[in-house]
Amino acid sequence: MDKRLPQRKPTRIPGYDYSRINYYFITICTHEKRCLFYKRGRMNQMGLIAQSCMQEIPQHFRGCKVDKFVIMPNHVHLVFMPFGGRTVKELLHSWKSF
């Protein structure tokens, strides 16, 4: 582990059921916080792919609502609501694999 990066704190509430219908605010950072999604102030091809996959989440997860998202140079902010017994973990894993 790189000692220069800050240590992560646990972000999950112990015992909370993340498949509950609720709005969730998620931040997804790139590996080593590399600026992968923008180049020279403009969204690059990787950023466009990340944006496209984010827009397609409701098609892959019927009933899941993506309320808002923003692609930043080295991370993504997302506000969404999972439905149908899907968990936050399942949705994020699928988005990353797309």
Written account of the structure:
With 98 residues, the chain is an alpha+beta fold. Helix content is 26%, strand content 24%. It is built from 3 helices and 5 strands; from the N terminus they run βββααββα. The chain has helices at 45-55, 57-60, 88-97, and strands spanning 24-29, 38-39, 42-43, 65-71, 75-81. The strands form 2 sheets. It has a 3-stranded antiparallel β-sheet with strand order 1-5-4, covered by helices on one side. Strand 2 and strand 3 (42-43) form a beta hairpin. The chain is flat. The relative contact order is 0.22.
The fraction of residues in strands falls at: 15-25%
In total, the number of strands is: 5
Quaternary class: single chain
What's the mean pLDDT score?
Answer: 85
Number of helices: 3
Strand/helix succession: EEEHHEEH
Morphology call: flat
For the termini, the CA-CA separation is: 26 Å
Work out the helicity level: 25-40%
Q: Could you name the ranges where pLDDT drops below 50 across 5 or more consecutive residues?
A: none
Strand order of the largest sheet: 1-5-4
**Pairing-aware structural class of the strands and helices?**
alpha+beta
Radius of gyration: 14 Å
Q: Biggest β-sheet, characterized?
A: 3 strands, antiparallel
